[in-house]
Design brief:
The chain is about 30% helix and about 30% strand. The chain is α+β, with helices and mostly antiparallel strands.
Length: about 700
């Protein structure tokens, strides 16, 4: 697969990731203040301790059941993950109904039912409510727990851990929680391959028997039901759920905030961008007088597209696709303020500085009254829309019970939101955003970002991917004496077939299967190239036709996207005309090359070569042993934003005496495309007519 098609795929990624642009400068006109009316649930308690809340709502012939096991958070230590294993086994059959029969009946009823270790949820049409409640009770009280199913779930969990081993996102989540709360706190401990292998089938069953019981359980029923009827049903189906011995574990206090603001860095050499998390612990509960003001304060800082962080890091500077914040609440006094973003390696230090600036801004500058008004209106709108979901009403009913809230908490909710003042925003920001005690957790490629992070003057401490403190890593290995970039390029040319064979290649025809991360369909790509610089590329999907097409005949070219044909602009044409041959390494000039370092890519050492063209730098990484090209890194302006495209090449195969990569993964921002070659032809299947 030729490396010169990357720009086309980057453009395609931009197309599938683009959202319609809206004019954010003019907020919609607010409608009349809505009146919030939330029915108070009728309640009763079974002898086994199960507490039931029922809200009748006869608008639609549907009913939902939300079961919540309200145990205190617990640490599982050396057997962390036992709760996930047993939770994944629940809701898949009972001791009297096989897994397949159980799931088939739920599908037949047009219902839904799912379980986890902290409870379950079921919904159905009213006419099937008795049966779905019976199935829910049977699954809770008599779950089908087999060692065979346990082994399957254990294998799946271990495979998931392996898949996440090099994921900067997974590492950031794990390290962030561990450093903030402490690894012995329930919110800070994490699952590893070792802890999963410590868990036996007997451990999982024992955990269920000890913790999944009606002692601290709530069942919330919402929908088209009659209270007296549903009370009889619940007594009938849940009366045999045995009460267990109370487990009175105390939730420990989380780790204290750091004494001074610092960067906590985790090196992930393969990371193509940095994961930022600026955080401090807070003690904020829903029944605190600051609660409503805290919601709006966080909304203004990082609640979405109108937030300070988003406007600065994305709209003003183009560092990221999005920057957000969260100010959490927890009735056990363990939560966090957390501002997050994923940014390009080159701007990691700048993103940290700008994010800190915005946090300081909301603490020191009064918020614009119109911005405050807009933030309230947005919050009110989201609140009202959420009321349409039965699950929301169930959560509200439980929140009042579990968080010691007044009965009118939600009926007066909007009034308290609208009462938040400019002064409240500044007061709350200063109380909960600890500018002098922040952890700035950065997970990224140290070789690319540490030098500039050090220039910020913020102290840096180093941790491994499991939150253990370490010494500063060695980010690159010393280059062999006398080795030059030209020699690395020459080794690559030799490795893939030699200059003579490469010069014999006059055209390349390729078909490939395409995987788009998160997309439900799998397109196919066709690529045709001919010397000196002609190219044709198209991506199609079954039932959707052509998604995108690009063609250049050496003099003119066009792009077809969403059915619209657009001629290439002058800059694109100039770049296309300047291309030489099908293998760019054959035409690199020594003056444009620089050998920078040795870095690790997917466990393999690679020479990092800088290529400068028209004062724009790109990077190419060649494996030190095979000489093959493993990765390219290119930055360009796309749609008014600076975008970095990382392309990984692997699985080299011989085609007509030339080694070509048959697997390619292209990542631009959060969008990732993978290409698996299904057919390659050299010097056949391509004619001049293909490029017109």
């Amino acid at each position: 697969m030729n490396t010169k098609i990357v720009a086309f795929f980057a453009l395609f990624i931009m197309a599938i990731g683009a959202n319609a642009q809206v004019d954010r400068s003019q907020p919609p006109v607010a409608g009349p203040e809505p009146e919030i009316s939330i029915d108070k649930p009728e309640e009763f308690t079974l002898k086994n301790g199960l507490k039931v809340l029922v809200v009748e709502n006869h608008k639609l012939p549907r009913v939902s059941y939300s079961l919540r096991i309200d145990n205190n958070p617990i640490s599982t230590g050396k057997k962390a993950g036992v709760e996930s294993l047993i939770g994944s086994m629940l809701g898949n059959g009972t001791t009297s109904i096989s897994k397949d029969t159980f799931n088939e009946e739920i599908d037949f009823l047009g219902a839904s039912l799912n379980f986890g270790i902290s409870g379950g949820f079921a919904s159905s049409l009213t006419k099937y409510s008795d049966r779905i409640l019976e199935l829910m009770a049977d699954a809770a009280i008599n779950p089908l727990l087999t060692e065979e199913e346990f082994d399957k779930e254990k294998t799946k969990l271990l495979e998931g851990l392996k898949a996440d081993a090099k994921s900067a996102d997974a590492i950031a989540g794990r390290v962030g929680s561990a450093l903030s709360y402490g690894t012995k706190h329930p919110y800070g401990e994490f699952v590893t391959e070792e802890t999963i292998n410590n868990v036996s089938f007997g451990d999982a069953v024992a955990f269920y028997e000890k913790h999944f019981n009606p002692n601290n359980a709530y069942l919330v029923v919402i929908g088209d039901v009659d209270f007296k009827d549903v009370k009889k049903q619940i007594k009938k189906y849940f009366k045999d759920w045995s009460k267990s011995i109370d487990v009175n574990n105390t939730v420990p206090k989380p780790s204290a905030n750091v004494q001074y603001t610092q960067i906590n860095f985790v090196d992930v050499p393969d990371a193509t961008q940095s994961n930022l998390s600026i955080t401090n612990n807070v003690e904020l509960k829903m029944n605190d007088e600051d609660y409503h003001a805290a919601l709006i304060t966080n909304n203004i800082l990082g609640g979405g597209g109108e937030g300070y962080l988003f406007k600065n890091l994305r709209e003003e500077h183009g560092y990221t696709y999005g920057a957000y914040s969260r100010l959490g609440t927890d009735r056990y006094g363990a939560s966090r303020f957390n501002a997050t973003a994923k940014v390009r390696n080159a701007v990691t230090d700048s993103a940290v500085v700008e994010a800190l600036k915005e946090i300081n801004r909301i603490k020191t500058e009064p918020v614009d009254p119109q911005l405050l008004k807009d933030a309230k209106a947005k919050y009110v709108g989201n609140f009202v829309m959420a009321l349409e979901r039965p699950q929301t009403i169930a959560n509200y009913a439980l929140n009042i019970k579990l968080n010691d809230l007044p009965e009118d908490f939600y009926t007066t909710y909007l009034q308290k939101i609208n009462d938040v003042s400019v002064e409240d925003i500044q007061r709350v920001a200063n109380k909960y955003f600890k500018s002098d005690n922040l952890r700035i957790i950065v997970v990224g490629n140290g070789a690319d970002v540490i030098e500039n992070l050090e220039k910020t003057g913020i102290p840096i401490m180093y941790f491994d991917e499991y939150a253990n403190k370490t010494e500063k890593p060695v980010f690159s290995k010393p280059l062999p004496a006398g080795l030059t970039a030209e020699a690395v390029i020459s080794n690559y040319v030799t490795a893939i077939g030699g200059e003579e064979n490469l010069n014999k290649v006059k055209s390349i025809f390729m078909n490939a299967d395409v995987t788009i991360q998160g997309a439900p369909f799998k397109p196919k790509a066709t690529v045709k190239q001919m010397v000196p610089n002609k190219s044709f590329m198209e991506i199609t999907a079954e039932g959707m036709g052509s998604l995108m097409k690009q063609s250049f005949n050496g003099e003119s070219g066009y792009i077809v996207q969403q059915g619209q044909k657009i001629d290439m602009d002058d800059k694109t044409l100039a770049d296309k005309k300047a291309e030489k041959g099908l293998f760019p390494e054959l035409f690199f000039e020594a003056s444009t090359l620089g050998l920078e370092s040795i870095v690790a890519i997917d466990g393999a050492d690679a020479y990092k070569v800088k290529v400068t063209k028209n004062e724009v730098a790109s990077y190419r990484y060649y494996e030190t042993t095979t000489g093959y090209l493993l990765r390219t890194e290119e930055t360009a302006e796309m749609g008014g934003q600076t975008m970095t495209t990382i392309t990984d090449y692997s699985n080299y195969k011989e085609v007509s005496s030339v080694m070509l990569p048959s697997t390619m993964k292209v990542a631009t921002g959060p969008q990732v495309l993978a290409f698996e070659t299904t057919e390659v032809k050299i010097n056949e299947g391509v004619t001049d007519a293909d490029f017109n």
